[in-house]
Amino acid sequence: MSLWNPLDPKVTEILNKAQDMAGINQEEAVCLLRLELCSPESYAVMAVANRMSRQSFGGKGERHFHIGLNVEGCSFNCKFCSLTKAAGIFQDSEEFSREQLLAWGKQGEQQGADALNLMTTGRYPFERLLEVGAWLSKEISVPLVANTRDINHQEGEALLAHGFQGFYHAVRLREGVDTPFPVEKRINTIKVITDVGLKWANCIEPVGPEHQPEEIARLMLLAREMGATYSGVMRRINFPGSPLGHHGMINELEMARMVAVSRLVMGDVAKAHCTHEPNTAALMAGANLFFPEVGSSPRDAQSDTGKGRGKDLMACAAIMREMGLDPSLPSNCFGATRTAPNQSEHCPSSYHGLP
Ligand code: SF4
């Protein structure tokens, strides 16, 4: 096939619609998720998503620093999580000390993190999370994002009063099947988050080869409809003994294509677009947000993922710079969204139906 053959007309039509930032629908997203991975059409999807993000986010590279507050064998036993009783990796409960959390927070501040995402396991006491938010927000000027269990309105208000500005919460793929949580409960928490005025952070996760385009697309559409501040894609990482390990894992190129489709779905709603774990390919497909990590992680068998799988802030910044994104610009997620006209030098023309 000649490189210059016209793209599939249906794909061209979807891309023309997408680059107007109006979002695409379920059927269109499924069509793009089904494209052959290395086809010119797939690369055109990634090119359009890349251009949309560089224009609308003004070349900003966001780094939201994940700090896992505790490890335990969590009895909720979500099948994709290493911090479960069933996985048997973490026999003892352990909380990172105030000194350690402060050191990580200061590190985030000094190295230019755009947010601190404080993650807990499912049974971590909510009051303790509030306490950490209260003192950490006095010590550190970086916005705090909570990542914890489902909450009600009163708890949402309490998070705001204790220094949090955002809340990460996802309806996970196969929620209620691979987890014990009903989808409705997760959606209700998202309503609480937006009702009380916390910024809702989301990701399509944790994607594995077993997930079908329809279920992936449905969650992408949910993120747009419910107004996520950002909603990219994270793949499932299999840990030793992972109950879902027999499915294997998707590779970074497959994830980048999903990142791109998700970017097209989000249109003008997104303030940033995430991917996890940090990788280069997704930065050519519309992602501009990485999560450097320390403390506990549901993807790691190390209690401090900073000594395991987690990438640090400076490593994430270096990848972003190599891909023409600037981590030193102000965050779009916690301030006014900027666009930088000079990004056109990185993306000189709009999409005109050429591969
Ligand atoms: S994902 Fe959260 S709730 Fe589920 S097992 Fe892991 S720590 Fe517990």
Tell me about this structure.
- The chain is of the alpha/beta class.
- The chain has a single domain, classed as Alpha-Beta Barrel (TIM Barrel), CATH 3.20.20.
- 35% of the residues lie in helices and 13% in strands.
- The protein has helices spanning 9-18, 26-33, 40-56, 98-110, 126-139, 153-161, 183-196, 213-225, 252-266, 313-322, and strands spanning 62-68, 70-71, 94-95, 115-119, 144-147, 164-168, 199-207, 230-235, 275-276, 289-290, 293-295.
- The strands form two sheets. Strands 1, 4, 5, 6, 7, 8, 9, 10 and 11 form a nine-stranded parallel sheet that branches. A two-stranded antiparallel sheet has the order 2-3.
- The two termini are 12 Å apart.
- Mean pLDDT is 93; it is low at 336-355.
- It binds iron/sulfur cluster.
- Iron/sulfur cluster is lined by residues 74, 76-78, 81, 83-84, 121-122, 179, 298.
- Residues 74, 76-78, 81, 83-84, 121-122, 179, 298 line the site of iron/sulfur cluster.
Topology:
Elements (H helix, E strand, L loop, with lengths): L8 H10 L7 H8 L6 H17 L5 E7 L1 E2 L22 E2 L2 H13 L4 E5 L6 H14 L4 E4 L5 H9 L2 E5 L14 H14 L2 E9 L5 H13 L4 E6 L16 H15 L8 E2 L12 E2 L2 E3 L17 H10 L33
Parallel strand pairs: 1-4, 1-10, 1-11, 4-5, 5-6, 6-7, 7-8, 8-9
Antiparallel strand pairs: 2-3
Helix pairs in contact: 1-3, 2-8, 3-9, 5-6, 6-7
Iron/sulfur cluster binds next to loops.
